[in-house]
Amino acid sequence: MSFGKLKSARKAKEFHSYVKPDGSSLSDAEGLTASLNTAPASDSTEQIEQLAGSGANTEPDQMQHTSAHPAQTPRTDEVPYGSLAEESQEVQPDLKPAPSTVPGKAPDGPVQRNAETTTPVPLNDCHISLPASLQIRESSRHGRGIYTNTALQAGTVVMSIVPHVSVLSTSYLDQHCSACAASATESGLKRCPKCKTVYYCDKACQDRDWAWHKHECSALQTWAASAPSPDVMIPSDAVRCLGRILWGSQKEGPDSTWAREIRMMQSNRASVHSSSVEDHTYLAHSLVRYLGVRAPADLQPFSLSSASDLVDLISRFTTNTFTLTSASLSPIGICVAPTVAFANHSCSPNAVIVFPRAQGTPASKEPSLNLVALRDIAPGKEVRISYVDTTLPKDLRQKELTEVYNFTCQCKLCTKPPTVDPRESLWCPKKCGGTCPLPTEEDNLFRCTKCGAGVTNVDAVLDAARIGQEALDKATSLQFRGELSLRSKGYNATQLTTNIIPILVSTGLTPSAHPLLAMTRLHQELLIASLPTSLSQESLDEVIRTAAKYNAGLQPILPKGHPIRAIALAELGKLLAVDEPASLASPAQASMFPPSGPPRLKLAYESLVRAHEELLVGFGKANGGGHVGRDVRDAIARLEKEIGVWTSGIKNALEDSVLAQRAG
Ligand SMILES: [Zn+2]
Ligand SMILES: [Zn+2]
Ligand SMILES: [Zn+2]
Ligand SMILES: [Zn+2]
After folding, report:
1. What is the CA(193)–ligand 2 centre distance, in A?
2. What local confidence, expressed as pLDDT, does residue 532 receive?
3. Mean pLDDT for the chain overall
4. Which domain holds residue 355?
């Protein structure tokens, strides 16, 4: 999961907490406007001027010229990694020389022309949390990255660190601890009596956070006092995160390892995408208001010598932020972890970032960010994560990578996609069981790869995909917008998913195809949210069917053990294990899905066992698959007992009949 993904969600969710696009709450930021105008000339003068001017009112297309600046360090993704089997078939002249610390791996052959070379990046006593098994190397093709010195098995926890800074998204502030990010237990969370904004598990968490929250607490109070309307009482997570970075640098000192690690993070400021300039502008204006900065001199305590430094920090922040997720992958906030931020992107990554909340991790070490190997990774290879949702089709992935991270992905999935990418696929129009690529406006002469039948309903498919995407955006924003009338909004979103999914299915989209997969996931989420109030056999079975379709859609596009897949399977298993409100097993329904009675329990058991195997990979073997892994293991144990009772019941019945036969 990425900042970008969260960013799009946040656009709907808490965009209102940025400075208003109409500039109505910009008055406080005039100090910055002046300071930005007087910022020293630099390679990004134009950009600063944009930030300084009527930035919030400027149309994005007026900012296009920023793209004329070449990226200082373009991060293109030249080295795709598939599975080990794929790698051995591919010619990869790159990654030579191998890290010199690997015995027997020193380059001995002639140096190839244009071959990618990598050199160790001097860390200058920073990043001591980087394990000895890893190295930061600079590639001649795609900048800095994380490389392994040793063979890593799928499910290995490659790195486990506490981020420099993590903050909760506004709507989760009262649901998770602001220190350790744990979710509220039955005893509830305790609110900070001063700002009345952040919550903690207990006094210990509050005390630990105070060094960070001290400045934040008064800034939050000042912000709230001058808020123009009730819906902007709390600054966005991005603003609060940047605030913590600046107060942290102040606390630790500008020459501290902590502050230097933040400064080592890559900035793409010289080539910020036009669509991001606006976001950066909101951020800059909100941040100075939050910090109470009124003149350039006020930036001094934060070790920022000019507004230009501030622009730089924001750029660095935007490209290097990770989404903070719950143990079950719900995005709950954002965090900054400079050591892990060295990891490069691939749409087919060999590693993932998760927050497993493993048993035994003390609250002081939470949130614990884990980099976990998703596949076996050979010594000398680069460890890559995905910055974007890899269930999305190529054009949407590329769009986000360009806009937020400013590079064009050249991974195998992007450059040599399969003939039919399940993310963009239709069932064969002749229903032979084969699939065809999804038609596009430009190219609509597609045929089934199995029987050759041509797609005939091109216009209908294009329309459905467009309507589906619009509905998805709408439903997502309805789901997220405001807490005031959540129930009615949620109801509307469910109406939307309920109505659109059959249209997408009827035009022939496969369960993996976008936007059907995303719609199915959202539908499942909405249905689960409404279950407690309306638990009936029908509503439960409907969620189970939706969860099964979502799982079926994920299988072809995510590798086994991917945390998203593992969680989806665990959810299906848990839903199947819920006590049926009114089991209606009758001959007519025997073949229906989901089954009822013992077959349902068996299916629940099998799903959970598979989920547990995958959770051990996605959330790390050493973590026991994290909190969800533990939960699923307990559920398996309960089911074993329950099934045992059934089985012994059947056994007894059989024995009875055998005895009856003998007697007869
Ligand atoms: Zn806590
Ligand atoms: Zn407070
Ligand atoms: Zn890619
Ligand atoms: Zn066919």
Report:
1. 6
2. 81
3. 81
4. 1-40+68-253+314-417
